[in-house]
Write a structure and sequence with these properties.
Helix content is about 40%, strand content about 15%. The two termini are about 25 Å apart.
Length: about 425
Amino acid sequence: MRRGLVAAVALSAGLAVVLSACSSSKNSSSSGGSGGGAGGNTTLKLVAADYGTGPSNTSQKYWEGVANDFHAANPNITVNVQTINWNDFDNQVKTQVQNKQYPDVLEGDYFPDYAQSGLLYAAKDVTSASTFSNLLPVFAKLNTYNGTQYGMPFTTSSRSLFYNKKLFQQAGITSPPQTWADVQNDAAKIKSAGKVGFGLPLGPEEAQAESLLWFLGNGGLYQDDSGKWVINSSQNVETEQFLTSLVKSGVTEPNPGTKNRTDLWKQFAQGDIGMINGSPALIPIIQSGGKLTTSDWASVPIPGKSGPLDKTLGVCDNVSVFKTNSSKQAAITKFVDFFYQDKYQIQFDKEYDLLPATNSAVKSLASDPIFGPFLKALPNSVQYPSAPVWTQVKTQIQQTVATALTQDPKKVLDSIQQTATKGS
């Protein structure tokens, strides 16, 4: 997701458009601190990203429901819940940490620099052995610093190409694209029919995701298997040159650097875009748009330079636990084990059209007609770099990578590469 699914958007993460009020309920609220109480009572503070599209399905309600259930089973432990809109999540979390107002449990982005600073518990220290072993292993490296896993995937997502079958038929296109050349040709035909051929969201919401999907299509990455940064590789420069030609031909929306994925997903749902890269989080937008039926669209592997990708971007949003007070470690472990139950994993994913992060929940959804195809891509997914400097690199990509469409792409990628290597 987000993010970063994550992703993503991630994921989805990018669907959040309303900042949830920090409301309270009988057993959980967003007010109050994270200190323990008298008489053996413990109070935990959970800060989580809001994946909702409005008041009716804000993540605040989901987490308060979990907190209430947990309190009923553990009367001496109260969980205060605060959710933050994805658009302001990074800034608010960083501000809390700078002010030493640490959450006990954080769900959303994983910040490797917090692990580097010694602020986080190792994942194994705040989960039971059964919970830890149930986490999807493909995301372990992403959440690891110096050989220790600190972040735990909570919700995941993978990407595919969504295309409008009605527009394809109207444009005389008989099959979905498999190569970049197909994308160029098909997008031109759709443009001739008066619609946007390909939606290219390179705005600040998730430019790092869209860029990586295109880099993968040419054998490119941000970081290779050895940990070497390869942002300015010849493959990635060539990819940017292709995207520049795609934009200059007029088959994308104007000014991709100003367009976020959620903006373009809504346009796709209205039938105004022929093709766009997406995650399961696009599905509820299509359904709520009221324009496309399930037979009007489909999703397929993302086209690469010479053929469809056999891997894709897999993103996850994570749980990390801060070392706020050693006396609360046992209570935190109980809470983490509690919300990783399949019941709550599946409830969250059904609510926000995301994918689970545990082996058992994935197994239970494998035959689901909506989630099944995306779950198949997860084992071969590529993740974002796990280096602490990735936080800075991601921000620079979000802010500047779109300028490669109008400036020398090598210089733009060189600048991002310099940030990555200096911070490593």
